Amino acid sequence: SREQLGEGAVLLRNCVGHDEAALLADLRAIIKAAPFRHLVTPGGHTMSVAMTNCGRVGWVSDSSGYRYDPVDPDSGQTWPSMPPSLRSLAARAAAEGGYKGFTPDACLINRYKPGAKLSLHQDKDELDLGAPIVSVSLGLPATFLFGGLTRNVAQRRYRLTHGDVVVWGGPSRLAYHGVAPLPAGEHAVMGAQRINLTFRKTR
Ligand code: MD5
Ligand code: FE
Question: Which ligand is located closest to the Cα atom of residue 66?
Fold first, then answer.
């Protein structure tokens, strides 16, 4: 199914489909090569969400700021490459959301355990703001907070569940957003966690 959340923002429920087994196997291999870690923000806070990346570059944060870096600072190696199972899901979802020819070069992988949250923010570290961000939710359901172009706009809340994909483009690309603290639970496939993949075109 297909639901318009805002101008340029399209929610595709249960969009992962038959790609799921290959996707999860590839995800496990990425996490083995580049394990989840809790990044520190420039303000000195350790994030409750744990992160890793695949693709040409990965999103990293430390005391000096945010950046896209070809090197995993924990390993000193380049990030695992973006497997075709992930790349093709992102391209298919983007096309369904109205963006043909989406070629992401980064995939940020966020892991939420119960209690983890993502505070209200904008994604603006990417140079190509004309490209959408494609977000894939796996595991436990989460409450997603979708605000406006300024911080003070009231947020609408959406429950995102396993297999849901959101294409964030157009004016929604720079909307403030966040994720409410993850409730405890156990997902049949993913266990006691939510994993979110965000596909980005950084240049
Ligand atoms: C998540 N991740 O559920 C979300 C999904 C992040 C992040 O926010 O930065 O890693 S991506 C949601 C998103 C991206 C770009 C724009 C908008 C939402 N939006 O306009 O609401 O872990
Ligand atoms: Fe974000």
Answer: 1
ipTM confidence: 0.99
Q: How many angstroms is it from 22 CA to the middle of ligand 1?
A: 24
The ligand 1 atom at the shortest distance from the C-alpha of residue 178 is 8
pLDDT in tens, 122-165: 999 999 999 999 999 999 999 999 999 999 999 999 999 999 99
Ligand closest to CA 107: 1
User: What structural domains and CATH numbers belong to the chain?
Assistant: 2-200 (2.60.120.590)
Q: What is the DSSP letter of 40?
A: B
Whether the Cβ atoms of residue 158 and residue 74 lie closer than 8 Å to each other = no
| pLDDT tens-digit readout, 79-117 | 999 999 999 999 999 999 999 999 999 999 999 999 999
Query: Could you tell me which of 104, 89, 97 has the C-alpha nearest to residue 168?
Result: 97
The full length of the chain comes to 203
**Residue 49 CA, closest ligand 1 atom number:** 22
Distance from the CA of 176 to the center of ligand 2, in angstroms? 8
Sign of CA dihedral 177, 196, 181, 6: positive
For ligand 2, an ion, list residues with CB under 5 A: 123
> In angstroms, rounded to a whole number, what is the distance separating the alpha carbons of residues 58 and 70?
6
Residue located nearest, by CA, to atom 5 of ligand 1: 135
